């Protein structure tokens, strides 16, 4: 097995008396796709927020490629290779589709502080952005304002922005939530492609069991903020606790 | 060529293009098209306010930061020129020194304010700027040995820029140093305006808009939002100071009322909003309309009041002393009908 890229050790956050994430220790290897499941309120998104830095941990550490990044800002973690797509669509609503993706590529290439060049003449940024947009089939909407897009297309753009970032760790937070049946495959195929073609670590919060079954190498179950189960999909899905508490119903559906 | 000059940000509306061309031609040939001391005074004020408003729009419209200290930076530039001309003596060197010192002081002060407040929350910045601007205004009026207090400072600028300097006639207009002075201001403002237009259309400018739209996401894709906010603040402050220096060179006088007053701060806000936030061209239209109204609305109303004599109530309503009332009405109407400003409206509608 390849080496550990991302690791959380005893990661905990308390809001007042409520422990939202409770001492979660977990290591994620390069080239591995981990599905993170659990009922609503289990702390999945909060766990993501702790890893990518939107929320500061009360205790515990986050380590990326052997370096402790627990004290770093969101932007600094992003620079070191932590990429994140959001559950609630979180874009630049009054900029165009193209501009949203261009901003990601421009940042990755360290061009943000170029004050006196013409952005519209930076064709290599535009071209790179268009390549990503084609992959999510949004290239024809390139000049539309994001606020004008349908929900499904906004979700696709959300994924496109993470892909444009080319991080070492991809964190998808329910990427297909609210998507129509014919839109979701575009996004799922992309994630499958990422898994196949790159050596990235992929973390995926997802509710749909069939999706998890086809994509995941491993399942981590969170319950009340704590780690409830961790292992290969077949094993975790078969375990009593998961069967009973979270997956019983969904498994029957499949 | 033109595209490069405008940084790829074309007016994108026929009416807007025509209006902007009209403004450009009127200002470029103002001494010949509108001879007379008062109209030249108005033209110079328009040039300077276009630049001042554009620099404020970089902050408010593009970055989404509210600042109440813009007149303070404007004043720093103006007092820089005044103090240098007073203490170093009349000359070009003094103008250059005062201008540079003013711009530098403004940028450094903006950096300090930004470091203190922008790290926390953008709204905190608005309050801090309000406090610092008030403190500076009090300080300027208290340190009268240095600043002339409420009376301000009058000083001498190089003779080539004053009415006493004569060059001959062109098209029946006597070319004096005052006209050279006007062209100094016109070309400096034009160049700095185009520079600002380039900055907002640069990769940096795109990040500013991203920060305005969604700072949370901007951070998540790797932009250190604080640094961008601070850089925009410093840049905006420095350009405001340069506008102040030009104003001081034009007026040959600085005082709290012409540069530091809170009234001017409100005027700038109104000009940005009327013209259209987040569009550099909005600064042009906003400043032109507002300065013209400030200078000529009273005359216009005088004429209208005379024409309405004999009618009930109208003459009182149109009395030139009520011009502020009508300016207020104009402002409310423009915000009501053009919430995105004149430029936003022109670009959107056909």
Concise description?
The complex is a heterodimer of chains A (254) and B (350). In chain A, 38% of the residues lie in helices and 24% in strands. Chain A has 254 residues and is of the alpha/beta class.
What are the key terms here?
heterodimer; A: 254 residues; alpha/beta; Rossmann fold; 2 domains; six-stranded mixed sheet; 9 helices; disordered C terminus; B: 350 residues; ABC transporter involved in vitamin B12 uptake, BtuC; two-stranded antiparallel ribbon; 18 helices; 74% helix; globular; LivM-like (chain B); transmembrane helix (chain B); membrane (chain B); ABC_transp_permease (chain B)
Task: Describe what this molecule looks like in 3D.
The complex is a heterodimer of chains A (254) and B (350). By secondary structure, chain A is an alpha/beta fold. Chain A folds into two domains: 1-81 and 168-254, Rossmann fold (3-Layer(aba) Sandwich); 92-166, no CATH class. Chain A is built from nine helices and ten strands. Chain A has helices at residues 44-52, 74-79, 97-108, 123-135, 151-165, 184-197, 209-215, 233-238, 240-253; strands at 4-15, 18-29, 33-37, 59-64, 67-68, 82-84, 169-173, 201-205, 218-223, 226-231. Chain A is globular and about 55 Å long. Chain A starts with a strand and ends with a helix. The relative contact order of chain A is 0.18. Residues 248-254 of chain A have low confidence and may be disordered. Chain B has 350 residues and is mainly alpha-helical. Chain B has one domain: ABC transporter involved in vitamin B12 uptake, BtuC, CATH 1.10.3470. Helix content of chain B is 74%, strand content 4%. Chain B is built from 18 helices and four strands. In chain B, helix 10 (203-213) crosses helix 12 (225-251). Classes of the chains: A alpha/beta (254), B mainly alpha (350). Chain A binds chain B through residues 52, 54, 73-76, 78-79, 84, 86, 90-95, 99, 102-104, 106-108, 111-122, 125, 161, 165, and chain B through 4, 7-8, 195, 198-199, 201-207, 209-210, 213-214, 216-225, 228, 231, 235.
């Amino acid at each position: 097995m390849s080496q550990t890229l991302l690791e959380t050790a005893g990661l905990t956050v308390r809001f007042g008396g409520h422990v939202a994430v409770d001492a979660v220790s977990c290591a994620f290897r390069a080239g591995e796709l981990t599905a993170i499941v659990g009922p609503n309120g289990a702390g999945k998104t909060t766990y993501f927020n702790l890893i990518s830095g939107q929320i500061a941990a009360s205790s515990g550490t986050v380590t990326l490629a052997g370096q402790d990044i627990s004290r770093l800002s969101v932007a600094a973690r992003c620079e070191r290779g932590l990429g994140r797509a959001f559950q609630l669509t979180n874009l630049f609503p009054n900029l165009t589709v193209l501009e949203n993706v261009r901003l990601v590529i421009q940042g990755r290439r360290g061009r943000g502080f170029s004050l006196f060049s013409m952005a519209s003449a930076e064709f290599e940024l535009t071209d790179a952005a268009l390549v990503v947009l084609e992959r999510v089939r949004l290239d024809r909407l390139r000049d539309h304002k994001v606020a004008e897009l349908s929900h499904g297309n906004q979700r696709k753009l959300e994924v496109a922005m993470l892909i444009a970032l080319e991080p070492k760790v991809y964190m998808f937070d329910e990427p297909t939530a609210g998507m129509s049946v014919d839109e979701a495959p575009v996004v799922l195929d992309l994630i499958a492609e990422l898994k196949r073609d790159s050596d990235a670590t992929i973390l995926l919060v997802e509710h749909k069991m069939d999706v998890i079954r086809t994509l995941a190498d491993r399942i981590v179950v969170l319950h009340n903020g704590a780690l409830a189960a961790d292992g290969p999909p077949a094993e975790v899905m078969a375990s009593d606790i998961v069967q009973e508490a979270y997956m019983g119903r969904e498994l029957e559906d499949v | 060529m033109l595209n490069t000059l405008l940084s790829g940000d074309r007016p994108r509306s026929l009416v807007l293009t025509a209006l902007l061309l009209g403004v450009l031609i009127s200002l470029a040939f103002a001494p010949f098209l509108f001879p007379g001391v008062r109209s030249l005074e108005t033209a110079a004020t328009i040039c300077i306010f276009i630049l001042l408003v554009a620099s404020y729009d970089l902050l408010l419209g593009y970055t989404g930061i509210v600042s109440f200290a813009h007149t303070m930076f404007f004043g720093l530039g103006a007092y820089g020129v005044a103090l240098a001309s007073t203490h170093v003596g009349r000359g070009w060197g003094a103008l250059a020194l005062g201008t540079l010192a003013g711009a530098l002081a403004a940028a450094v002060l903006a950096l300090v304010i930004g470091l203190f407040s922008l790290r926390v929350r953008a709204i905190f910045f608005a309050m801090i700027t309000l406090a610092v601007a008030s403190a500076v205004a009090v300080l300027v009026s208290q340190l009268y040995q240095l600043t002339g207090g409420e009376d301000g400072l009058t000083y001498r600028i190089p003779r080539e820029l004053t009415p006493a300097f004569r060059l001959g006639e062109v098209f029946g207009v006597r070319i004096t140093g005052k006209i050279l002075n006007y062209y100094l201001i016109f070309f400096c403002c034009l160049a700095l305006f185009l520079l600002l237009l380039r900055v907002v259309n640069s990769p940096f400018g795109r990040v500013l808009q991203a920060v305005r739209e969604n700072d949370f996401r901007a951070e998540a894709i790797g932009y250190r939002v604080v640094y961008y906010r601070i850089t925009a603040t410093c840049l905006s402050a420095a350009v405001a100071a340069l506008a102040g220096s030009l104003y001081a060179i034009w007026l040959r006088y600085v005082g709290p009322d012409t540069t530091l007053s809170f009234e001017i701060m409100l005027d700038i806000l109104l000009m940005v909003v009327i013209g259209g936030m987040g569009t550099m061209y909005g600064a042009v239209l906003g400043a032109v309309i507002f300065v013209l109204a400030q200078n000529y609305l009273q005359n216009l109303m005088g004429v209208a009041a005379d024409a309405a004599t004999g009618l009930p109530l109208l003459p009182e309503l149109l009395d030139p002393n009520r011009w502020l009332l009508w300016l207020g009405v104009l402002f409310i109407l423009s915000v009501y009908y053009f919430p995105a400003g004149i430029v936003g409206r022109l670009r959107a509608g056909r």
